[in-house]
Amino acid sequence: MRALLTSKTARRALRPVADLIDQRIERSVAPLRNRQRPLELLLDGTGRGPSRLPAQVHLDRLVDELGRVTGDRPGAERNVAQAFRLLMAVEALGVGRIAGGTMNICGKLSAVPLLDPPNDDILEIGTLYGMFGAALIRMMERAGRDPRLTIVDPLAGLQLQPGTTEGDDPTGTPVRGAAVRSNLAMVGPAGTRARIQQGFSGDAEVRAVVADRAYGVIIVDGDHSAEGVAADLAWAEEIVAPGGVVVLDDFGHAKWPGIKEAFDQHMAGDTRFTFLGQAANSGYLRAG
Ligand SMILES: C[S@@+](CC[C@H](N)C(=O)[O-])C[C@H]1O[C@@H](n2cnc3c(N)ncnc32)[C@H](O)[C@@H]1O
Question: Which of 2, 78, 181, 206 could crosslink 199 through cysteines, CB 3.0-4.6 Å?
Answer without folding.
Answer: 206
